[in-house]
Design the sequence.
């Protein structure tokens, strides 16, 4: 199982970024996917989750209405569209899946929101 995130960067408050996570090594369309983030000195926290077919999504209260998780099962990719970014969204963002009762993580992509 391999998960590779991309799309991070630096943006001003109020800006947008779209993160991507390319998956391989398992049947992507059968598994839910999640985005997590970890800010310096803080614990890793769940940001959003999407079901295997994409019909069900859940979000942390802190990002509801600003972030959107989606997936393209034909491309084995999950996305996180982040709008109205705030300085407190600064973190390393990770995608994650559970496959055969084991958690798999990507290497992370840095998002920095600063003026």
Sequence:
């Amino acid at each position: 199982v391999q998960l590779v995130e991309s799309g991070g960067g630096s943006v001003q408050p109020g800006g947008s970024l779209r993160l991507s996570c390319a998956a391989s090594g398992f049947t992507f369309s059968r598994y839910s996917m999640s985005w997590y983030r970890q800010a310096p000195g803080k614990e890793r926290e769940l940001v959003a989750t999407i079901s295997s077919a994409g019909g069900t999504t859940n979000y942390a209260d802190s990002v509801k209405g600003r972030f959107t998780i989606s997936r393209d099962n034909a491309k084995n990719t999950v996305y996180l569209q982040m709008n109205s970014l705030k300085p407190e969204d600064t973190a390393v963002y990770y995608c994650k899946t559970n496959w055969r009762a084991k958690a798999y993580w990507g290497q992370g992509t840095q998002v920095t929101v600063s003026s």
Remarks:
- The CA atoms of residues 41 and 91 lie 10 Å apart.
- The radius of gyration is 13 Å.
